[in-house]
């Protein structure tokens, strides 16, 4: 499975961005997919994940601001990020099962 993430960019605090991640290949056996983020010097952390049954898990820091969704027909997942904060600045990665996409940079200015 190969993943292509897009949608990152520079935004002011309070703004919004929508990340997209499209998969190519067979994803029928994948149970969980999600979004992670990483800043220099820190471990990669979970932002949000969704199982094949639709159960969604969010990091406490993004609850109420970020929304994860998926489109099975398009083999895609999306992360709608609202009310962005400077501390959301990171490289964001999508993950389908054990496959990782290349990161997309999100920068939030104060």
Q: Which descriptors would you attach to this protein?
A:
110 residues, mainly beta, four-stranded antiparallel beta sheet
Number of helices: 0
Order of helices and strands: EEEEEEEEEEE
Give the uncertain stretches in residue-range form.
none
Shape: globular
The averaged pLDDT comes out at 95
Q: Report the sheet with the most strands, covering strand number, pairing sense and barrel closure.
A: 7 strands, mixed
Count every beta strand, where a strand is a DSSP E run of 2 or more residues: 11
Radius of gyration computed on alpha carbons:
13 Å
Category by helix and strand content:
mainly beta
- The helix fraction, in percent, is under 10%
| Percent strand | over 45%
Rounded to the nearest angstrom, the distance between the terminal CA atoms is: 37 Å
Short description:
Strands 2, 4, 5, 6, 9, 10 and 11 form a 7-stranded mixed beta sheet that branches. The protein is mainly beta and 110 residues long.
Describe this structure in words.
With 110 residues, the protein is mostly beta strands. It is 0% helix and 55% strand. The strands form two sheets. Strands 2, 4, 5, 6, 9, 10 and 11 form a seven-stranded mixed sheet that branches. A hairpin with a 6-residue loop joins β4 and β5 (45-51). The chain is globular, with a radius of gyration of 13 Å. The N and C termini lie far apart (37 Å). The model has no long low-confidence stretch (mean pLDDT 95).
Ordered list of secondary-structure elements with their pairings:
Layout lengths: L1 E5 L2 E4 L4 E8 L7 E7 L6 E7 L4 E3 L7 E6 L4 E6 L8 E7 L2 E2 L3 E6 L1
Parallel strand pairs: 2-11
Antiparallel strand pairs: 1-3, 3-8, 4-5, 4-9, 5-6, 7-8, 9-10, 9-11
């Amino acid at each position: 499975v190969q993943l292509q993430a897009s949608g990152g960019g520079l935004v002011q605090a309070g703004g919004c961005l929508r990340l997209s991640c499209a998969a190519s290949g067979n994803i029928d056996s994948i149970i969980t997919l999600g979004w992670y983020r990483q800043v220099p010097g820190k471990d990669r952390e979970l932002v949000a994940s969704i199982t094949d049954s639709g159960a969604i898990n969010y990091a406490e820091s993004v609850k109420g601001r970020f929304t994860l969704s998926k489109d099975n027909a398009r083999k895609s997942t999306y992360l709608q990020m609202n009310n962005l904060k400077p501390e959301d600045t990171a490289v964001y990665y999508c993950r389908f099962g054990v496959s990782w996409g290349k990161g997309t940079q999100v920068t939030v200015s104060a």
